[in-house]
What does this fold into?
Amino acid sequence: MQQGNITVVIVTWNNETDIVDCLQSVQDQAYPDFNILVVDNNSTDKTVVLVQKHFPQVDLQIMSKNLYLTGGNNFGISYAIEHYNPEYVLVLNPDTIVKPDLLSVLRAAIDSGAKIGAAGPKVKFLLGSGQSQDYGKINSAGLIYDGFLQAYDRGFLETDKGQFAGDEEVFGVTGACILLRVQMLNEIGLYWRAIKLHLDEVELFIRAQKAGWKAIYTGKTSIDHKWMRSTDQNKLYNLESAKKKAWARIALRHYPLKRKFAALKQLFLTSK
It folds into this structure.
């Protein structure tokens, strides 16, 4: 595989029903200079076999155990920097299908300012994600964070009427698809392994914002997302408990002392 200034990192775990469509859409990018890295988190289904069979040109790295999303992304980003020396890394969920212009549009957005460290597209629900009536509705048009235990997707479950069509500076973008500037990651670090799966991008964007980096949402391209597919597959994963623990870790790491106590009280003493 040739060097490229964007490396697409896709972390998989038992994604046999999604990975072929995802990789085909990434492979069909119009962007001229990229490579694809799949980090498999010790899948027990046919994910690895399908990647090897249909996409022999993809760099496939198989983990001996499940590193979860943050561990898999960190391995992939570090591996990409060491082996491909990219300017940018795109972290992408395996349960997505992207447009052919994704990399070109995100590259233009992230290059629109020297301190823009991340860019993300409009994310829409794909058939098979939750309820069928959600198909085509907006999953995310960037992230909003209130600074205290609340972060949510702009436009969530709205019908797409072109209301998020342009480029906007936002707190962050959803972790399903983020183009990250390697220069920023070298400065602020990678994902925090203490948070395995949910709110990992929120914590990353808190650090980015503290260091003066910005994030851009662009509605000039979009991806389709089978939302919550990986979480739904893991029957032992308690989403609400994981989110509560992640917020606690974020509060302890980033909030001033009084807000730490207030956050922990709200999370563990006053919640039902």
In short: The chain has a mean pLDDT of 93. The radius of gyration is 18 Å. The first strand starts at residue 6 and ends at 12. Residues 68-84 form the longest helix (17 residues).
